[in-house]
Each structure stands twice: as C-alpha cells, then as structure tokens.
Specification:
With 214 residues, the chain is α/β, with parallel strands linked by helices. 32% of the residues lie in helices and 25% in strands. The relative contact order is 0.18.
C-alpha cells in the first residue's frame, strides 16, 4: 500500500483576467479597431479563463415592482453566445453578486450554462483571504455550475488575485506557491486564477510564464 502523501497539486490551473472591459485589456491588448463583440474571441486566443461581470454584457432590463431588474433569459443568451464564440476552448466565470437572490437562483438552475463551459461565482461571498503584501491579497472561493448548487464540497476552486501594482517576481512566486498549496489542501480538481486592476494583463502574463518554470 502506498501511503506517500501528495505534495504537489496535479490538477488544472486556469489563468485569466477580471472584466472584459478591464483597462489593461482596452489599453494594451485589444487592437483599436477590434469590434467589441469580437473581444472575447480575441482574448481567448491567449487566455483560457475570463471573469465576466454584468458590465461586460449589453443587457436590457425590465421594470418590476421592486425596481430595475435584469432579464435572466438575456443573461443566459449572452453568456452562451460568448462561450460559443470560442467553440468551447475557454471557460468563463460569471460574477452574479450584482443580482438579486431570486435571479441568482434562476441562473443556478439553468442547465444551458452548465453545459457551455460557463460557471458562477458570487464575489461578495468569497470564503477566505490571504495577505501576500500590503498591495497584494488573494481571495478564495469555488466556482460552480447550476447542478452543483446543493453540493457541500466543490473541487473547482477560485482565486482572485487583487493587486493595484505590478507584482514583483519574488512576490509573484509567493502568490503561485500559495495558490498551489491551497489547491492541494482543498483537494481541488481545477484552480481558476483571476487577476484584476490596471496591471491585470501584465501580472497574469507573468504568472503564466513563472508558473510554467516552477
């Protein structure tokens, strides 16, 4: 019997950026003449993960007794269209924190999204935080599809790397080591890593390169 303890995360690491309208993508990644509806397809040529916010979608809203609300059907339609643009080569995680609980429930129950490489997260309910430095912190959680809603354990993990500056190589190495250790401790199947801020593009690219060398 082999009782040797696993010491290295052997699951999949997916790297990406928060918000298709992130300033680092707009200013330093997308060609100036690229149509907006081509951005996700262009983005997915380099990255296999994107955190999508409501602001990334061109959503009409319907008036309800409680005020302005979004159409779940339109959200599903647009998310499915985004993933179809990449022919399943990339994953998107939709942040549903800006929706009411009832709308979130309707999205979670949608099997269309579950089948389209699109998953959910509520950024307001990330479970843990790790401080790397005064300018960099990691927020942890899980992504899930509609059919995972009732699960008490989810092996598709999520890490939001929040940094308002360019992350130095030594600090970025600590970020990756923390991500690997967390994924291993949680027995994760995948770890979905998203960078935000004006330096998201540079930090994400550097993390992918550094991780491949470690």
């Amino acid at each position: 019997m082999n009782s040797k303890k696993q010491t290295k995360f052997n699951g999949e690491l997916h790297f990406g950026i928060s918000n298709l309208n992130n300033s680092s993508l707009i200013n330093h990644f997308f060609p100036e003449d690229l149509p907006e509806d081509w951005r996700y397809s262009y983005y997915s040529n380099e990255f296999d993960l994107l955190l999508i916010h409501l602001s990334d979608l061109n959503l009409p809203y319907s008036l309800t007794q409680s005020g302005n609300n979004y159409s779940v059907d339109k959200i599903i339609e647009q998310l499915t269209a985004l993933v179809d643009d990449t022919e399943g080569s990339a994953y998107c995680v939709f942040d549903c924190s800006g929706l009411s609980l009832s709308l979130q429930q309707q999205l979670y129950e949608s099997q269309v999204i579950a089948e389209a490489n699109c998953y959910f997260i509520n950024l307001d309910k990330l479970s843990e935080t790790t401080v790397i430095s005064h300018s960099t912190q990691l927020e942890w959680g899980c992504v899930f599809a509609g059919n995972d809603l009732e699960e008490t354990f989810n092996s598709d993990l999520f890490c939001h790397v929040k940094s308002e500056t360019k992350i130095a190589p030594a600090e970025l190495r600590r970020v990756i080591e923390n991500i690997r250790d967390y994924a291993l401790a949680k027995n994760g199947r995948t770890m979905n890593i998203v960078f935000s801020s004006n330096y998201a593009l540079e930090n994400c690219r550097n993390a992918i390169l550094l991780e491949s060398m470690m």
